[in-house]
Amino acid sequence: MLINYLKIAIRSFRRNLVVSVINVTGLAIGISAALVIYLIVHHDFSYENFRKDKDRIYRIVSIMHFPNQDFKNSGVPFPLQKAARTELSGAEQVAPVTVMYPMKVSIPLAGNNFKKFKKQPDVVYTDDSFFRLFETKWLAGSLSSLTQPFNVVLTESRAKAYFDIKAPQEAIGRVVVYNDSIKTTVSGIVADPPVNTDFNFKDFISLSTGDNADTQFKNWNVWNNIDSQNQLFFKASPATTTASLEKQLKELHDKNLKNDFLKSQYLLQPLSDIHFNADYQVFDHRIANKRTLYGLLVVAGILLLLACINFVNLTTAHAVNRAREIGIRKTLGSSYRQLIVQFLSETLVITATAALLSYLFVPILLKIFADFIPPDVHFSPLQQPNLIAFTIILIVVVGLFAGLYPAFVLARFNAVTSLKKQVSTNGKGNGKSALRQTLTIFQFTVAQVFIVATLIVSKQIHFVLNKDLGFKKDGIVAIDLPGDQPVEKQQVLLQAVKSLPQVEQAVLGGQPPARNGFATTVIQYRSGKKLVNNSTEIKYADENYFKMYGLKLVAGKYLSPSDSIRGIMINESYLHLLGFKQPDEALGARLKIQNRTVPVVGVLRDFYFSSLHNAIKPLAYSASTKGEYFTLHVKLKPNSGDSWHTALSSIESRWHNIYGDKDFDYQFVDESIAGFYKAEQNISQLLNWATGLSIFISCMGLLGLVMHSTLQRTKEIGIRKVLGASVAGIVALLSVDFLKLILIAIVLASPLAWLATSQWLQGFAYRATVPWWLFVLSGVLAIGVAFVTISFNAVKAALTNPVKSLRSE
Questions:
Q1: Which of 112, 271, 504, 618 could bridge across to 57 with cysteines, CB 3.0–4.6 Å?
Q2: Where are the alpha helices (DSSP H) in 231-380?
Q3: Which ranges carry the MacB-like periplasmic core domain (predicted)?
Q4: The dihedral of CA 433, 435, 436, 440: what is its sign?
């Protein structure tokens, strides 16, 4: 019976080739999009799921309560790492981890030579407790070896990168030197971590190495210093509650920080939250966004729904073409149930064909969205049984959803009227026709929402990328200087760069006016009895920096090198916070920063020094107290040919002449600002593709309906042409009913799109206006695409010789 159904399905596919191709293509696009989204969502939600007792593993994080805002930090004071082991009851395992910035690694070779690695990431200090908490497969060495100072455990891939070995055991006893000063011996090799974990460390230096007098950690005994590098993980015992643990942490805090000005506190972050919580760092790794993932699932569902609607519309519209077949089958004894099973089997065959075709589309989509998709996401069906299982489930669900209603419609045809081919699905008042119209309206409403959303998001991105930020940024390069070199070398490099013909200006300073990362301090101002405490971002610069970036002065003067201990500059937002109305009134006001009091010597006009998601906040500028800065700012002359490339090559050459093999890192200021909106640009790219796919699927369905309508009205079109109807009149006749549906969709979609995008725009403190003509433009685009789709077949029908049309009847 099943083989017979399969044969019938293939025969029906061939007989209705155009409709079948439209259905298969639409379903293939929807399924391929769903598969790509499944790969992304499954990858992110699988993080740490393989951990034993994962529900009882936590990270201790910190919140620092500044006077006017809170700062969340993934780290804890260094002493808490030790205190938690002895004073935190209810913790089965406590694992301290000190995450290092990329380190220079040297491997001693024969003849006093070294194999060098400039910047090795994923290096941490920890001890054997880490491997007890996060169980890891050991390939060589012993777990207890990490309790000894100057030992290091490597992953298998890192050991192979360092040493020319064939087996892990060969690396034991080899020497690894970090930052030219920390000499360690390899005491163990562990398996590489899986891709679905944030704990993908490669070098594990024994924590006791940091307690040694020569390599001692900075602030190792200071309780009031919270550094995101120092992190603490633990597993709670089954009977312990998070409330009791947080109470103990508060007691530890109060015991060791009786005069904590910041009123910091320690909280527990579940292991399952680490990969998704942007409030805390994840070892400089990518943080997934649950709202984005859920949004992707919605997009996948919408695209599948549009494809299913195509199937329902086209199948019910072409049902009359199968009326005689159904009549014969009923006459020969086919039951209502058998007909439903037959038509559902046909749908499942089409859906399965579409699923196989989607396997060709998925790799293409993964390449297109390479910047948006996590790098560890890959498509290997033979190695991903979960993907095959998901595909089978998708085939069944989509097949039933798309095929169930058409199957009921076809199976209900009356045998007598079917044999006479007197059934109809197009007449006025016909419920099936009304349903098709409703579904078509829904399709184009969705497509129109995507169009409007795409235009609004694109307009906002253009707005933030092109808004005048209040300072110059084009053609300026920021070069980070090494902090472990003599300050005299900075001046040598500065003069060498200034001499280059492609350089217009070069200055030393702190960070550029706008950049990710910040330094915040508490500044106090007393006016009579009123005391203003405020956490303020502070930057470092002198007058040359301000002039290069074109930062406007509204009162006082720019900072000079001699102002390092005698003056500070503030922006207008800080001016108003202090209670001054006019910039001149703030000059001379004395602000207390830590243990020194300095006067305000200048007021800067407000400029945007962070993402436009945030309102402009108080900002202060100070000159360096030691006359040293750690960023070289270079303004290049207007680019001509490859002059900028030549300039950067020349700067790098002079860099290495002065700093040796220190890494040369630079970034154009305008590019770093564009990086603020990477997530929005990803959303824009996703919307572009979702819009394109939704329009394509909807238009394919519309084309199929137009082709059916044209076929049903062949005789009418022939008669009208004989009576003198023009081609334009025929096209208008065939188009008007469908364009009415598109207009209804536009009316419905506009308020929906506005509501959706207005919520998204609330995430920006500064937003582009959304003009009325944008909705008109999106409507015109939708009508234009629909009209082109309709005209493709309508013009062909209008140009057909009426004699041939009438004879065919």
A1: 271
A2: 242-256, 290-317, 323-331, 336-368
A3: 20-251, 517-639
A4: positive
